[in-house]
Known about the structure:
59% of the residues lie in helices and 3% in strands. It is mainly α. Strands 1-2 form a two-stranded antiparallel sheet. The chain is elongated. The two termini are 33 Å apart.
Amino acid sequence: MHESLKSIGRHMFDFSKHLIEVEWLATVPCYERDRLAITAVRFAHAGEILIKSCIAKEHPLLIFSKLPKPQHAEGDLLDLPALFEQGRTHNYSQLPNVLWAATGFELERRDVYDDFGKLRNAIQHFGIPDYSFDEYMDSVDDYYVHVLRPLAREFWNDSFSLPTRKTTDLDYVPE
């Protein structure tokens, strides 16, 4: 394996965590429905990167559904530039199955993951659906509590300590 691929899982985790934290801190003081719609899109993106980081921890090439041909790599080993140019990663809807196949880990609340993906698609492709502030907030909270936190804890021993309406840091103790 090319040296540049060895730390990709950790890098992806760190980026997803930063994206989640920055987005949450930008959203919480706003209490605006449209701002929460943007947060939903960004949280889904961060979740996609987070799941890929968990898969990449097993082996970085497992996140790819399409790999470059040998003639696109520099030297004898497949490297990051070739993957950026020619590789294709698994899409959002496939990731829970790839995660399970690569690691044996199943999302306990796959329904939350799938529903959040549908919400993200509705926002991203059709504009902001007519959801109330509370509906957006509940969706973001559920995704954070039931998808993002368990993945961070299981694979990276990290608790993602952002308070939500459903849990606070005081009542959340990482295992």
